Amino acid sequence: MSTSPRAGGATPVPPGRAGGRLLALVVLCAGQLMVILDGTIVNVALPTISDALDFTPANLAWVMNAYLIGFGGLLPLAGRIGDLIGRKRVFVTGLVAFVAASALCAAAVDQAMLIAARFIQGAGGALASAVVLGMLVTLYERPGDRARAIGAFTFVGSGGASIGTIAGGVLTQTVGWHWIFLVNLPIGLAAAALAIRVLPAERGLGLRAGADAAGAVLVTAGLMLGVYTIVRSTEQPWPYTLGTAAGAVVLLAGFVLRQARARTPLLPLRVFAVRSVAGGNAVQLLMIAGMFGFQFLVALYLREVLGYDPLHTGLALLPASLTIAVVSLGVSGRLVARFGPVRMLAAGLATVVLGFAILAQLPSQHGYPVLLPALIVLGAGFATAMPALTGLAMSGGDPADSGVVSGLFNTVQQIAGALGLAVLSTVAAAHTRQLVAAGTGAAAAQTAGYRVAFVVAGGLVLAALALGVTLLRRTGAPARPAAPVTVDRAEPAGTGRS
């Protein structure tokens, strides 16, 4: 294999080091697990945190919003920094920042301290998450191996969400809310220590190859304002929401213009000329908008309609995660290698649509017998579609742009999740209010509102299916191998230096 000049004169990792790649995959998944775990584990503990620190309902939302704004706003910048100074350095730095912020969260004595620490957590999570996919696709060159690695990554994402729901209930009810943050410390520190030892060292392109400060300011400010607009859209008057949305659009439009003219752009617009990158992210926007909102609404249905406590809510959602584990770890990689990513993406999305059709039949009493098969179908569909989609979106473009493509993919995921949650929760709440005003009972009205939202979510995924088949049908062949992982000639992989 030839030396990659874009990587600073480095040599590739020997392809036979399967054990080393497996350990690297475990480290990357552990870091991602910590970031995913934090989202749902905090959500369960919010009422207890509110009582302990005297939050008002409006201020309490900032415990989640501060994290989302820091995370979503910094992802593209984090991905590009990974390309410039080395993805390993950025990953380890993100883990350390996340752990330090988690300790600050646990030590918080007032609202301002907790909200500030949550923003730092989001920034650390962005640094760690933005480069993970870029490292995965360079660690695993063969399409079949890459599909299985991405399947494991997909399971960690969905499994971490369910584990967080259960762990949040257990920790909050037994030892206190501080421990939902302290649990990150052993995971993060262990992952950082192992990452220094086992992840291949990279020199990166150098800051001179793409240090676009003006672009960084524009995209970070635009994304932060955009995420702020989305997460606050249900609480602010429409003129205010439209004003902040317009501000975000202006900043992001300025960023695009800057990237078109900059000598060393932060986000090279050439990546959007690759059909798999542009199409994959467009499909993901619609798919994640439907799936993320579904998780939130099902949890509300279990707690507010069926009366489940936080622990039993987490257990009730567990079949979806178990299904995702079985399919993503044991089946999806082989299916993608045999039938191609586009066919499996289409099959997975069609299965998700079926799951939403089942959810649209939920009753207001004794609903779990209907919910259970829907969770299994949705889990199977997601576990089939997401690895195929991830492989497609990461398979094209210059290997030197893998970090920025990874950051873009994660950014779209975060924006889609926030947007889907805002839209679906608004639809459900509006329909529920109409029925209550007409004299319908509270449980029946809430269930009907959720059913309408599930129909909308199914429509979003159906649109993703149509878009995917249209845009990605020519990319159905197995993805070409990624450029080999490169390491500094003077520093063999796994020596422990970063």
UniProtKB/TrEMBL annotation:
GO terms for cellular component: plasma membrane. Pfam families: MFS_1. Keywords: Cell membrane, Membrane, Transmembrane, Transmembrane helix, Transport. Residues 24-476 form the Major facilitator superfamily (MFS) profile domain. It is found in: Cell membrane. The chain crosses the membrane at residues 22-46, 58-78, 90-109, 115-137, 149-171, 177-199, 211-231, 237-257, 278-302, 314-337, 344-364, 370-394, 415-432, 452-472. Gene3D superfamilies: MFS general substrate transporter like domains, Multidrug resistance protein D. GO terms for molecular function: transmembrane transporter activity. It comes from the Bacteria. It is a multi-pass membrane protein. This is MFS transporter. It comes from Actinocatenispora thailandica. The lineage of its organism: Bacteria, Bacillati, Actinomycetota, Actinomycetes, Micromonosporales.
